[in-house]
Every structure is written in structure tokens, then in C-alpha cells.
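User: Last request for today: this protein with inosinic acid, please.
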Amino acid sequence: MSHRKLVPGKLVVASHNKGKIREINELLRPFGFDVVSAGELDLPEPEETGLTFEANAALKAQAAAQASGLPALADDSGFCVQALNGDPGIYSARWAGPDKDFAMAMRTIEEKLQSLGATAPEQRRGSFVAVLCLAWPDGHQELFRGEVEGDVVWPPRGTQGFGYDPMFLPDGRDRTFGEMTSEEKHGWSKDTPALSHRARAFQLFADGCLEG
Ligand code: IMP
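Assistant: Here's the final one, the structure of the complex with inosinic acid:
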């Protein structure tokens, strides 16, 4: 499939989430964009009314592209626990409440798993999903999805990363995302494939829309 290319220049990162902005900036760094965040431009944060990651990513990217007159990149992402029918999923940020209390959100997941009696490893599977949307001011958009599967661990481990990172152990690793440096979490270098959901989506975006 052919994608519209993004020419180097100013690019809005359509997010107000510090952890995400940091990771997206790290992933964009080799490509030489002049990156500015939606917060720095004082752009309003649109309400996430979509029912899918794709719909919410598009809504955020389109709102930022329209308001700024610049191409905008948005990420909608979340933690999906199989035994909870994919919850918290698109509601991952909301489960942490207005105080963004992710210790509480992780505890909520664990309590729900305990109340289902989900103690066996095969009942404690989860994945992170990230959908990136790149939108141009003329309304054109491109979408890319990345996912990573693993185990839901308790108690949470590690203080790096953000959100639900400390309770997610990606398959084939012995450290949670919370115990990894961001380089290890992205896992993306010239010789290794991407590891995190965001880096996997980014790799598709870079292959599709970026030169070099
Ligand atoms: P939204 O995409 O802004 O609606 O929020 C996504 C939410 O999912 C974040 O606030 C985090 O709680 C969670 N999330 C997304 N990506 C990650 C990640 O890489 N690590 C940990 N939590 C994440």
C-alpha cells in the first residue's frame, strides 16, 4: 500500500501525556523534524469519544492538524487484559481517574483478576496496543497499529516508564516495561526489531511515511 510521505519540517505531537510525548520524541529524533507538542501550542485536548483506538487517534490528530495548520501525529494506546475482555483498553487513562493514579489503576486490574480467580499464568495475559495517526491540514490521514503481548504481573515491578508499565512483562523478557530503560522498551535499533507497541506502530509509520 502506498502512503503519503511526510516532508521534514514542523510536526505537532498531538498529545498532552508527558510519558507518551517523551517516547514519541525519542522515536522521531533520528528523522530531523521540528517537533512541537499540542500543549506547547496551547491546543485544546479533544474529548476522546471514539470507541476504537483508531477512532480516538484520528480524532486527536485531525483536531491538532486543523487547529495548527500543520501535520500532526497522535497516539491512542492502552493496556488490554484478556480475562477482563480487553479492559481497560481504550479507557486505560480513565481508569487512573482525574489524579492520574496508576498505582490505583493497576490495583483495580489486579482486584478484578483476583475476583475472577485468575491466578494461573494463562489467565493473566495482556497486551499493549498503540495506534498512531498522522493527519494533514487538508484532512488526509494515515493510521498504523502496533501491539505487544505478555503477562500481567503482580506486584508491579520497576519505576521507569509510565502508566501500566510496571505490571507488564513482555513475552521473551525477564524485566517488566517498568524495569526497562526507554531504549530497551522501544527495542528498536538498526539490528533489532521493535519491542513496545508504540515502537512497533512507529516502525510501520516510519516505513510508510518517512524518508531515510
Ligand atoms: P490515551 O491514549 O491518551 O487515551 O491514554 C493511553 C493510556 O494507556 C495512558 O494514559 C496509559 O495509562 C496507557 N498506556 C499507553 N501506552 C502505555 C505505555 O507504553 N506504558 C504504560 N501505559 C501505557
